[in-house]
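Illustration 12: F-box domain-containing protein.
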Amino acid sequence: ARVAPWKRRKKTRAAAPATATAATDTLPGDVVIEILVRVADAATLFRCAVACKPWLVLVADRAFLHRRWPDGPGQPSLVGFFAQQRRHTSQVVSADPLAGPRSPAFVPAPRSPLGPSRRSLGSFVSSAMASQDMDGAGMLDDAVPLTLREGLLLVRLAPCGGAPAVGTGQTVVQLAVCDLFTGTCDALPPLECNTSSSINNCAILTDADRSSHKRRRSPSPLPGRSSLLKVLAIVFDPDTSYYYLCTFSSTKSTWSEPTPCFSKTALRITDGSAAVCRGTAHWFACDGWESCRTLGVSTSTGRPSSTEVYIPQGRYDFGLYITPWLGAAMDDTLSLFHLHGGCRSLHVWTRHGRHNVNWSHSKEIELRPPEQKAICEDVQCLCADQGSGMLLVMDRLERVYIVDLQTGGVDEVTEQFQRLELQTVVPFEMDWQTFFFSRLEGHKGT
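Figure caption equivalent — predicted structure in C-alpha cell form:
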C-alpha cells in the first residue's frame, strides 16, 4: 500500500507482456498457426503479428504467408485515399489530429480495415517526417499527391529556396516517391521546366510491367522492397501550348529530355493518374467529342504514342460537363467510364486488343443516389479504383460521394474530406501480402 502509484503502474505494464507470452507458450506452435491462418481480416492478422515476438516469427514465415495467400497477392483492397491539406492564412486551434502536421492526409474508405480516423502521411512514412529543414518544416509538408500504384505514392514537394532566378524563366520541380509498405521516402532528382509549366498527369511503372502478360509480380520477401522502374510526368508548357513527356528511370537515376507529345490546341489531356494496362500507361485526351485519343507510353520503348478512340454516339448522350476517364480492369482490358445525368447511371466502354480503335458498350450501371439528396448535374470524377469498384465524385457544390460499381449505391462522404484539396485525391489499394512481406520479414531477428 505504501508503493507509489506510478511504481505500481510500471510493474503492471512490465508484467503484461510476460503474461501474454506465457499464455501463448501453453499452446503448441502448430495449433497457433492453425488459429492465425484462419484470421480472415488482414489488418487484424497484422495486429496479431506485432502483439508478441512468437506470433511475429510465425506470421512472418514465408511458408505461412504463402499458405495465407496461396494464389499470390490477389485483388488489392481499397483502404482509403490521400489528399493535400488546404493551407489557411491563420492557424485555427481544433481537435483535428491533422491540424499540426501539414503532410498529405489519409482518409479511410468506408469500412476500411485501417480504422475510421483520418491521419497524416507521416504515420505511413516516418523517415520523411524525421527530416526537417532549418525552419522545422517536414519534408512532406504541403506536398501534393500525384499518383499511387503498387504501394508507391508519388508526391510533388513544396518549393523551397524562393523564386527562380530572375531572367532565367526556369523553375525546379521536386518529386518524391513514398513507399507505403516499407515506410521510406526517396526524393527524385530535380526536374527543370519553365516557370509557368504545370504537372497534372503522372504514372508509376514497376518491374511487374516488364511482362505484359502478367498483371503483377510475386512480392519480394526482402525488407526495403522497391519495385520502382520508371516515373512518367506529363508537363504542359503554356508558352508553346504543348504537352511534353519527362521520364525518370531508376536504373539511370536521371530525367530524360522532354519529348513533345502533341499540342493542347488539338487535344486536352484529362487531369489525373494514368491507367496502366499491359505494361503501358494510358491517358485520355479529347477535344469535346469531335476527336478523342488515348496517349500511351510503353515500358519497353518509353516513347509516347496515340490511338484514336471511336465510340458510336447514337443514342448515348455524353453531356457537356462530365469528362470520361480511363480505367484498367483486373483482366488487363482498358475501359472508358462516363457518368450520365449527375449520378443516375454510369456507362462503361471496353477496348479489346492493343490497337483496336473500336470500343464496345459493355455495361450500363443504374446508380442509387442518397434519398432526399439532389446531386447536381455537373459532376466530376475525382478518382477511380476499378479493382475495388469504387468511384469518388464531386458535384459543383463540392459535395463528395463514393459510388459502388457493384451495387450501384452512392454514399455522401463530404464531411470526411473537409479541409482537403479535392483535386489532389488519389486512391490507396492495399496489397496485404506484399505489406506483410515488407513490414515483418526484417523484424523476425530483432
